Amino acid sequence: MEELDLLKKDWKKNENSFTQVSENEIYKMIHRNSSSVVKWIMIIGILEFLFLTGLGFYFADDSYTKSLEKFHIDTLMTILTFVNYAVCIGFIFHFYKNFKNISTTDSSRMLMKNILKARKTVKYYVAYNLSMACIIFIIILISSCIYDETTINTISKINSQENAILTWAGFIGGILFVLALLLGLFWLFYKLIYGFLLRKLYRNYQELKKIDL
Predict the structure, then answer these.
(1) What DSSP string runs through 136-173?
(2) What is the mean pLDDT of the segment spanning 163-169?
(3) Region 27-43: what's the mean pLDDT?
(4) Taking 80 as the threshold, does the pLDDT of residue 69 lie above it?
(5) Is residue 86 part of a domain?
């Protein structure tokens, strides 16, 4: 946005004689910048999808399949995997749609509207991925409590203790801590990747509001 800042300074110096031209130039620059940002959001979304899909195929060996069968969640995880693929492809389609809408926008008001829509799509995407990670964690936890011998023995030992309530509190607290840590790492990952781009879009939106007033 350094170019835009320089152009705005020049605009202020000559606002009496070149206001209309400068507004037009600033709009074009914001338009190009917004289109570029949304294009990168789409590219990163595609790369992330391809990377995670490749990672899934890499680890989907016999031992992984046997582990799922041991926990009796092989069918459920297969369904969730296909649902996740469908939803992620849907989000990528929306990223592409947002990119096309912003690229072909010809008014500041419509560009502002499309920028907000693009930001909202990314936020929904991040919220979905965090929710899916939480759901998978809970499914694995519940199935391990039912079918994993080590977890079952741990639960039996806790129940046999005199201070079982305190032990259960510590056990559940540890699980919640691990869940919060995992979700926090995922959130930080998305914050670093998409947060920078969303902030650029928001700055563009604010600049457009000034022009539109």
Answers:
(1) HHHHHHHHHHHH-HHHHHHHHHHHHSTTHHHHHHHHHH
(2) 82
(3) 91
(4) yes
(5) yes
Does any domain span residue 156?
no
- The number of C-alpha atoms within 13 Å of 167 and in the hemisphere containing its C-beta is 11
CB-CB contact of 22 with 15 (8 Å): yes
Q: Residue 35: exposed, middle, or buried by beta-carbon count in 10 A (0-12, 13-18, 19+)?
A: buried
Q: How far is CA 11 from CA 25, 90, 115, in A?
A: 10, 42, 24
Six-digit token string for 72: 């009796």
Residue 38: which domain range?
2-130+194-212
Both tokens of 78, joined, read 């297969």
Domain count, the chain: 1
Nearest of 133, 125, 132 to residue 38 by alpha carbon: 125
121 within a domain of the structure (yes/no): yes
Residue 70 lies in a domain: yes
